[in-house]
Amino acid sequence: MILDNPKIIQPTLDSLKNSFRTGKTLSLSYRKQQLKNLLTGLKEMEDEIINANIKDMGYKNKDTSKLFNLTPTIMEIQFILKNFEKWSQKQKVDTSLLVGPGQSYIIPEPFGVSLVIGAWNYPLSTCVGPAANSIASGNCVVLKPSEMAPYSSNVIKKLIEKYLGKKYKKVKKNQKIIDNDCYRVIEGQIEVSKEICSYPWDHIIFTGSPQKGRLIAKAAAENLIPVILELGGKSPTIVDKSANLETAAYRIISGKIQNSGQTCIAPDYLYVESSIFDKFLEMLKKVLLEMTQNDPKTSPDYCRMINEFHTKRMQNMIKNHGGKLFYGGEVDVNQKYVQPTIIINPQLDSDCMKDEIFGPILPIFSYKNFDEVINFINSKDKPLALYYYGENKIHKQRLIEQTSSGALSFNESVMHYINHTLPFGGVGNSGYGKIHGQFGFQSCSHMKPVLDKSGFIGTLNAYPLYCRFPPYTESRIKTMNFLSQVFDIYPSEITTSVYFKIFIVLILAILLSLFSKLW
Fold first, then answer.
1. Rounded CA separation 179/30 (Å)
2. Catalytic residue among 127, 197, 264, 352, which?
3. Which of 97, 191, 368, 408 gives a 20 to 30 Å CA spacing to 120?
4. pLDDT tens across 422-434, in order?
């Protein structure tokens, strides 16, 4: 049972702000140790984590639960560990000749205390994964797991309290002091969830629905807090006649029934070219039966809906779609079971086409003209993902140029999530900001620009450099206008001919300076 206690929020925030001010999280070795500790904890607590996920999500197969929730989290932290020290180094950039001589570079700087609010569908990876990005960036972190996955929330709290923040100091033989004041977990029900974003955190990462994302953004705006919103949306999938239909069916169905469709980047609806429509429908059914061993209800790999409310939501979508039921439709509210369901041509104003489904229902439409697909996608909110199956280069290019989505995958579904060299995030209604890999590191950092003009040359104020200062006489203004036209270039842009022109200008400037002194 998770209790509500909003009173713990302010003391927790104050404590971590004090910890951040000590500067201990600025140390790369300290951050590295925390990430290693986190990996150790995930591996040592594997059984507890999996069992909690089974209780929350209704998995029957421990390996399936591990594959979808624990393994991606471990993969992400391992990738961060291999690379974050490189990402933490200052990044040299060009200095305009107009601004120079000097050096310009960017330094990743932690925000301070970061709040990470996880989702219930993948309670570990949506909470601990973003937290790892924030830890690598040098922030203190408070994690708020979803109260809708209470068993996982409890395990995450235990994980952080037991393994994070450990800094061992030998006092006596075999005696250790554990310092655990940079990372905390706040559990709570609706009152904590409603109130927690009203506090002055330095950064917030939220995974959830667009509706709640708007509330998070509004609350954060009161304190001008930078926010990453990982939201959802209706991710379209297109299959044309040039596609490998069997491959498309396997990857679409796999992405759809994973976690019973409770995945923010699951294929939400399909557009299939009319010439292959009937054939592909049968292929989808064949693959679906194969993957669920002819009975999804007893399949060890097929989980349940998170709660009764969402089960009934699926039930209402199935009852009121207004199209043709091709496969599935069975719902058992008591068991939170929804059979994978394929619906042909549901009404566009039905719930399954107005809202993100977030369940194992797959609407499917046929099309003859690719324009109608593009137009339909663009008439809706920008999705978190868009999938295309086929080899038509023109179609691919049109999707790249004429649509907007958080991610675009060709001949694949969902798998871009575990490619950590790609940013993960939405656009428009599906969110903003990025996590994963270097993009997540940068999103959890203030990328501070630095201009360094040191030394004799850097501090020189001789002609024509002093023309930038008042009083702005006519000659000074003319000089500055001339310099801004000639010297507003960067070393990486300079060719041999440009170097020669600059050399001539400098010689003339020196001669003019000497001439002015003689007079």
1. 12
2. 264
3. 408
4. 999 999 999 999 9
